[in-house]
């Protein structure tokens, strides 16, 4: 387990609660209700409040602004820990830190410093309404600000959030504008229309904006989105959060399968084995599962360490150094996807037909992973890696690479 590092302050560390201990407690609590909540869908309000009260919403915020000063290695491992039992809550928790990274990377210090302080003091949850591929939301300029009108989809965590990161297309020049606004701003309507097969409690539905006033000081324009190598770390933070969610899902599925095999599964009649855990075919599956998990953990943690190193360079970060981080994260994400799909699909081979009972909802691991991975096609990630291997071309910074 990594120790937290904070370049700004190392004082009073003994007085701070251990975030890993807090995350473990939260995971144990969420595990008690995750099956029922997966069936019901909707907003996990009680569980979100548990996260609020835990102090972990300010995990990545430096101590000088009231946060816990975590690095990205530790933050990603905590996202992963929560994902082992509840990938929906891990999703909104991970995106909390993605939204904070967004304001840090895209806006001026007088903007992000104030938002960091308020988030730490007031336990703000940040929701996502950025989704750059959905261009239905437009921004019409007015004196001192803009008027946002339109609709956004895939707005994970928008319900029960205090702040939103929003993207819109300017009506004047077609440029992408990104803003940070209160979720309760007049004209903002968060719609509870998320009903997918997986990630059923991420509230990744729609947000409607009807002539919403957005002030100039709420626009993230300096340096702005993806404008420098340092600001281009934002999509890499997003990709690594998803990687650790995928890995967490795989770890949770693996443990559920292991417990079922040891305690419930029956040996096949022709195996001549006294117990399922002696069956050579089952042992072969678990051996492969383990290799996949161990390999993915190594790549994921290595990628997070490279992200931390790049993050510390701040505006001195160069394009090549940013590209190396992108390659590391893409490699980890490809392996996390493959390992996760293998385990969540083949876990039933080591448990048997009784494990498909609807009440167990063990299929949720596959449903959650499959829902997530389709939003960023694996083939394009692999193609980017091929471009680098053969042509030494780093992935072009976009909101997905």
List keywords for this structure.
seven-stranded mixed sheet, disordered N terminus, 3-methylbutanoyl-CoA dehydrogenase activity, Butyryl-Coa Dehydrogenase, subunit A, domain 1, Butyryl-CoA Dehydrogenase, subunit A, domain 2, monooxygenase activity, oxidoreductase, 401 residues, alpha/beta, globular, Monooxygenase, Butyryl-CoA Dehydrogenase, subunit A, domain 3
Notes on the protein architecture:
The protein has 401 residues and is of the alpha/beta class. The chain folds into three domains: 19-125, Acyl-CoA dehydrogenase/oxidase, N-terminal domain (Butyryl-Coa Dehydrogenase, subunit A, domain 1, Orthogonal Bundle); 127-218, Beta Barrel (Butyryl-CoA Dehydrogenase, subunit A, domain 2), CATH 2.40.110; 232-391, Up-down Bundle (Butyryl-CoA Dehydrogenase, subunit A, domain 3), CATH 1.20.140. It is 48% helix and 11% strand. It contains eleven helices and seven strands. It has helices spanning 19-31, 34-40, 45-54, 72-83, 87-106, 109-122, 234-263, 280-313, 319-346, 364-373, 378-391; strands spanning 126-129, 138-142, 145-152, 163-170, 176-182, 188-191, 206-215. Helix 7 runs antiparallel to helix 8. It is globular, with a radius of gyration of 22 Å. Residues 1-14 have low confidence and may be disordered. It comes from Methylovulum psychrotolerans.
């Amino acid at each position: 387990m990594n120790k937290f590092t904070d370049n700004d302050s190392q004082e009073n560390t003994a007085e701070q609660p251990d975030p890993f201990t807090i995350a473990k407690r939260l995971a144990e609590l969420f595990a008690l209700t995750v099956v029922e909540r997966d069936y019901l869908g909707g907003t996990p309000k009680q569980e979100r409040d548990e996260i609020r009260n835990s102090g972990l919403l300010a995990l990545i915020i430096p101590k000088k602004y009231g946060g816990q000063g975590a690095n990205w290695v530790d933050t990603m491992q905590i996202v992963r820990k929560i994902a082992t039992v509840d990938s929906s809550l891990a999703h909104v928790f991970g995106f909390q830190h993605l939204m904070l990274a967004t304001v840090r990377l895209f806006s001026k210090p007088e903007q992000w410093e104030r938002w960091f302080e308020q988030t730490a003091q007031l336990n703000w949850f940040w929701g996502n309404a950025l989704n750059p591929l959905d261009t239905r939301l437009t921004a019409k300029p007015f004196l001192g600000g803009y008027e946002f009108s339109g609709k956004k989809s895939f707005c994970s965590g928008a319900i029960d959030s205090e702040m939103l990161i929003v993207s819109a297309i300017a009506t004047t020049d077609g440029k992408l504008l990104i803003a940070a606004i209160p979720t309760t701003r007049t004209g903002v309507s968060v719609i509870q229309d998320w009903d997918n097969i997986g990630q059923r409690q991420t509230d990744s539905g729609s947000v409607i904006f009807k002539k919403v006033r957005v002030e100039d000081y709420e626009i993230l324009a300096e340096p702005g989105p993806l404008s420098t190598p340092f600001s281009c770390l934002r999509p890499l933070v997003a990709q690594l959060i998803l990687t650790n969610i995928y890995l967490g899902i795989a770890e949770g599925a693996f443990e559920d399968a292991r417990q079922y095999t040891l305690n419930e599964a029956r040996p096949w009649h022709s195996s001549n084995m006294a117990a399922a855990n002696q069956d050579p075919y089952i042992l072969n599956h678990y051996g492969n599962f383990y290799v996949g998990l161990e390999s993915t953990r190594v790549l994921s943690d290595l990628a997070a360490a490279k992200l931390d190193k790049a993050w510390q360079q701040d505006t001195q970060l160069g394009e090549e150094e940013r590209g190396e981080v992108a390659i590391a994260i893409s490699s980890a994400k490809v392996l996390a996807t493959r390992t996760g799909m293998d385990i969540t699909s083949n876990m039933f081979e080591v448990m048997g037909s009784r494990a498909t009972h609807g009440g167990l909802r063990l299929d949720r691991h596959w449903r959650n992973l499959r829902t997530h991975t389709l939003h960023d096609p694996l083939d394009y990630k692999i193609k980017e890696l091929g471009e680098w291997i053969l042509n030494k071309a780093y992935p072009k910074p976009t909101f997905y690479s």
